[in-house]
Protein backbone atom coordinates (compact mmCIF):
# COMPACT_ATOMS: atom_id res chain seq x y z
CA UNK A 1 0.00 0.00 0.00
CA UNK A 2 1.35 3.40 -0.98
CA UNK A 3 1.53 5.89 1.90
CA UNK A 4 -0.65 8.96 1.62
CA UNK A 5 0.95 12.29 0.92
CA UNK A 6 0.86 15.18 3.34
CA UNK A 7 -1.59 16.97 1.06
CA UNK A 8 -3.90 13.96 0.94
CA UNK A 9 -3.79 13.64 4.73
CA UNK A 10 -4.69 17.31 5.15
CA UNK A 11 -7.59 16.95 2.71
CA UNK A 12 -8.82 13.83 4.50
CA UNK A 13 -8.54 15.55 7.89
CA UNK A 14 -10.50 18.55 6.64
CA UNK A 15 -13.17 16.35 5.09
CA UNK A 16 -13.43 14.26 8.28
CA UNK A 17 -14.00 17.41 10.36
CA UNK A 18 -16.65 18.67 7.89
CA UNK A 19 -18.44 15.33 7.87
CA UNK A 20 -18.43 15.24 11.67
CA UNK A 21 -19.91 18.76 11.80
CA UNK A 22 -22.68 17.80 9.38
CA UNK A 23 -23.38 14.55 11.23
CA UNK A 24 -23.68 16.41 14.55
CA UNK A 25 -26.08 18.85 12.89
CA UNK A 26 -28.07 15.82 11.73
CA UNK A 27 -28.14 14.50 15.30
CA UNK A 28 -29.51 17.85 16.51
CA UNK A 29 -32.16 17.88 13.78
CA UNK A 30 -33.16 14.33 14.62
CA UNK A 31 -33.39 15.19 18.32
CA UNK A 32 -35.67 18.11 17.49
CA UNK A 33 -37.83 15.83 15.32
CA UNK A 34 -38.08 13.29 18.14
CA UNK A 35 -39.24 15.99 20.57
CA UNK A 36 -41.78 17.25 18.05
CA UNK A 37 -43.09 13.69 17.67
CA UNK A 38 -43.39 13.35 21.46
CA UNK A 39 -45.37 16.59 21.58
CA UNK A 40 -47.67 15.33 18.83
CA UNK A 41 -48.24 12.06 20.69
CA UNK A 42 -48.92 13.89 23.97
CA UNK A 43 -51.44 16.13 22.20
CA UNK A 44 -53.27 13.24 20.52
CA UNK A 45 -56.99 12.97 21.16
CA UNK A 46 -58.88 9.97 19.82
CA UNK A 47 -62.55 10.48 19.07
CA UNK A 48 -65.15 7.78 19.64
CA UNK A 49 -66.42 8.20 16.09
CA UNK A 50 -62.98 7.78 14.50
CA UNK A 51 -63.13 4.93 12.03
CA UNK A 52 -60.79 2.79 14.13
CA UNK A 53 -63.08 3.00 17.19
CA UNK A 54 -66.56 3.63 15.74
CA UNK A 55 -67.80 0.03 15.90
CA UNK A 56 -66.37 -0.62 19.34
CA UNK A 57 -67.76 2.59 20.87
CA UNK A 58 -71.21 1.99 19.30
CA UNK A 59 -71.20 -1.54 20.71
CA UNK A 60 -70.27 -0.23 24.17
CA UNK A 61 -73.07 2.37 24.00
CA UNK A 62 -75.61 -0.36 23.18
CA UNK A 63 -74.45 -2.60 26.04
CA UNK A 64 -74.50 0.26 28.55
CA UNK A 65 -77.96 1.35 27.36
CA UNK A 66 -79.23 -2.20 27.93
CA UNK A 67 -77.71 -2.28 31.41
CA UNK A 68 -79.20 1.13 32.17
CA UNK A 69 -82.63 -0.21 31.14
CA UNK A 70 -82.17 -3.08 33.65
CA UNK A 71 -81.18 -0.55 36.29
CA UNK A 72 -84.29 1.53 35.50
CA UNK A 73 -86.49 -1.56 35.88
CA UNK A 74 -84.95 -2.44 39.22
CA UNK A 75 -85.41 1.16 40.41
CA UNK A 76 -89.12 1.02 39.44
CA UNK A 77 -89.47 -2.22 41.41
CA UNK A 78 -87.85 -0.51 44.41
CA UNK A 79 -90.13 2.52 44.11
CA UNK A 80 -87.39 4.96 43.13
CA UNK A 81 -88.78 7.78 41.00
CA UNK A 82 -87.52 7.90 37.41
CA UNK A 83 -86.14 11.44 37.84
CA UNK A 84 -84.11 10.43 40.91
CA UNK A 85 -82.78 7.04 39.90
CA UNK A 86 -79.08 6.44 39.29
CA UNK A 87 -78.00 6.08 35.69
CA UNK A 88 -75.34 4.16 33.79
CA UNK A 89 -73.67 5.98 30.96
CA UNK A 90 -70.86 5.20 28.61
CA UNK A 91 -68.08 7.75 28.52
CA UNK A 92 -65.27 8.08 26.05
CA UNK A 93 -61.91 9.36 27.15
CA UNK A 94 -60.11 10.58 24.07
CA UNK A 95 -56.76 10.45 25.80
CA UNK A 96 -54.94 8.02 27.99
CA UNK A 97 -52.78 8.98 30.93
CA UNK A 98 -51.64 12.05 29.02
CA UNK A 99 -55.02 13.64 29.71
CA UNK A 100 -53.58 14.99 32.96
CA UNK A 101 -51.41 18.07 32.49
CA UNK A 102 -49.08 16.94 35.27
CA UNK A 103 -48.50 13.61 33.51
CA UNK A 104 -47.79 15.37 30.20
CA UNK A 105 -45.19 17.53 31.98
CA UNK A 106 -43.63 14.41 33.48
CA UNK A 107 -43.61 12.52 30.17
CA UNK A 108 -42.24 15.55 28.34
CA UNK A 109 -39.40 15.88 30.86
CA UNK A 110 -38.53 12.19 30.51
CA UNK A 111 -38.59 12.50 26.71
CA UNK A 112 -36.42 15.63 26.78
CA UNK A 113 -33.83 13.96 29.01
CA UNK A 114 -33.83 10.83 26.87
CA UNK A 115 -33.47 12.78 23.62
CA UNK A 116 -30.78 14.96 25.18
CA UNK A 117 -28.84 11.89 26.34
CA UNK A 118 -29.25 10.15 22.97
CA UNK A 119 -28.17 13.31 21.14
CA UNK A 120 -25.08 13.68 23.32
CA UNK A 121 -24.25 10.00 22.81
CA UNK A 122 -24.65 10.37 19.03
CA UNK A 123 -22.43 13.47 18.96
CA UNK A 124 -19.83 11.71 21.09
CA UNK A 125 -19.89 8.70 18.77
CA UNK A 126 -19.43 11.04 15.80
CA UNK A 127 -16.53 12.79 17.50
CA UNK A 128 -14.98 9.44 18.43
CA UNK A 129 -15.28 8.16 14.85
CA UNK A 130 -13.78 11.38 13.49
CA UNK A 131 -10.99 11.19 16.04
CA UNK A 132 -10.28 7.59 15.04
CA UNK A 133 -9.92 8.66 11.40
CA UNK A 134 -7.75 11.64 12.30
CA UNK A 135 -5.62 9.47 14.59
CA UNK A 136 -5.15 6.87 11.86
CA UNK A 137 -4.12 9.55 9.40
CA UNK A 138 -1.65 11.00 11.88
CA UNK A 139 -0.33 7.60 13.01
CA UNK A 140 0.31 6.58 9.41
CA UNK A 141 2.55 9.61 8.98
CA UNK A 142 4.57 9.06 12.18
CA UNK A 143 8.10 7.88 11.58
CA UNK A 144 9.54 7.70 15.13
CA UNK A 145 8.87 5.48 18.12
CA UNK A 146 8.62 8.63 20.28
CA UNK A 147 5.83 9.97 18.09
CA UNK A 148 3.90 6.70 18.27
CA UNK A 149 4.39 6.52 22.06
CA UNK A 150 3.12 10.08 22.46
CA UNK A 151 0.02 9.22 20.45
CA UNK A 152 -0.74 6.26 22.78
CA UNK A 153 -0.47 8.33 26.00
CA UNK A 154 -3.96 9.80 26.29
CA UNK A 155 -6.26 7.78 28.58
CA UNK A 156 -9.78 6.89 27.45
CA UNK A 157 -12.98 8.28 28.92
CA UNK A 158 -13.86 4.80 30.19
CA UNK A 159 -10.57 4.72 32.11
CA UNK A 160 -11.16 8.19 33.56
CA UNK A 161 -14.89 7.75 34.32
CA UNK A 162 -15.74 4.15 35.18
CA UNK A 163 -19.39 3.27 35.63
CA UNK A 164 -20.89 3.38 39.11
CA UNK A 165 -23.81 1.91 40.94
CA UNK A 166 -26.39 4.33 42.31
CA UNK A 167 -26.19 2.47 45.62
CA UNK A 168 -22.65 3.85 45.98
CA UNK A 169 -23.99 7.41 46.17
CA UNK A 170 -25.16 7.07 49.78
CA UNK A 171 -22.08 5.24 51.00
CA UNK A 172 -19.67 8.10 50.37
CA UNK A 173 -17.58 6.35 47.84
Short description:
The protein is mostly helical and 173 residues long. It has helices at residues 6-42, 54-78, 101-141, 145-151, 157-160.
Question: Using only CA atoms, what is the Rg?
Answer: 32 Å
Number of strands: 0
Oligomer: single chain
In angstroms, what separates the terminal alpha carbons? 51 Å
- The biggest beta sheet, please? none
Secondary structure tally, helices: 5
Shape: elongated
Amount of beta strand: under 5%
Strand-pairing-aware structural class: mainly alpha
What is the average per-residue confidence, as pLDDT, rounded to a whole number?
91
Low-confidence stretches: none
As a percent range, the share of helical residues equals 55-70%
Spell the H/E element sequence: HHHHH
Question: Could you explain the architecture of this structure?
Answer:
There is one protein chain. The protein is an all-alpha fold. The protein is 66% helix and 0% strand. The protein is built from five helices and no strands. Helix 1 runs antiparallel to helix 3. The longest helix is centred in the last third of the chain and has 41 residues, at 101-141. The radius of gyration is 32 Å and the shape is elongated.
Task: Reconstruct the topology from this structure.
Blueprint: H1 6-42, H2 54-78, H3 101-141, H4 145-151, H5 157-160
Considering the chains and any ligands shown, give keywords for the structure.
173 residues, mainly alpha, 5 helices, 66% helix
Amino acid sequence: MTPTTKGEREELKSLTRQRARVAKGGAEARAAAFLADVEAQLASVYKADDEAFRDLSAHAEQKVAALDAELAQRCREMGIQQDFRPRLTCGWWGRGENAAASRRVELRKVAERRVQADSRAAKLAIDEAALDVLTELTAAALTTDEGRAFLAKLPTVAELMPTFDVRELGSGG
